[in-house]
Amino acid sequence: MIFASDLDRTLIYSKKAMGEAFGSTEVIPVELYQGEHISFMSPETARLLIELSKTALFVPVTTRTIEQYERIFYIRETFKPKYAVTSNGGNVLIDGVPDPHWQRHVAEALTRSENAEKVIEAFDRISSPDWVKSYRHSDSLFYSIILERENMPLDVVEDFRKELADMRWNLSVQGRKMYLVPDGVSKGDGLLHVKALAGASRIAASGDSLLDESLLKAADYAIVPRHGEIYAAYMEAGLYTFTDRDGMGAAEDLIAKIADWFALPAEEEASESPKMR
């Protein structure tokens, strides 16, 4: 059994994202950056995840680069994940080391999308210092762009999203960041590679952004926090199962529900585990 989960705004939260209910309570620091703790987990989330990890293989799945993922010391030291999917699926780590077989697979898949230089040239035609602060080509796989979110022209960005689709690239906006990601870099594909490596039969997954949809679709059971891009896009469509709470409380809800699903007899899982309703 595998529990595959996105990290930021799914299991771990910045001070701004954790929610009012946790603003004045004790939380566990999980990430250290430039001498400061910048991401946190609730004690109940940690307890539930430790319990779940006794019976299921916990696989962190993140858009973060390898370097950014390694800053999350709590997950590395507490859970010592055998496998992790980073760089939005561009890298699969085995005991912390990138799998060269997967890197070759991704390199071949990238040839089917438009060249990265042409994509950023197209983005430069719509960008402005009014709303774009900086960008970088993360792990030489996708673009990570820092935004002034309140100044972002929504209609221009939506038109650009359609232009990107013709290039076989995707666009996702999460908080103050925009990601431009080629089709060949997919969390779901990375997870399925881990499933094969581990010889696992069942997957439960969670995530909050549109970049997590491939992850959710690769799972047998999926649950989404009551916040973020997927919730905003589908909250009235009845397609996904959402947690009862938003913010840091969503992490507690989703692990509890996934533990309940893993505990079901196999014949009951089929009726209880639609990824989308």
UniProtKB/TrEMBL annotation:
Domain of life: Bacteria
Pfam families in the record: S6PP
Record domain Sucrose phosphatase-like: where: 50-224
Annotated protein name in UniProt: Sucrose phosphatase-like domain-containing protein
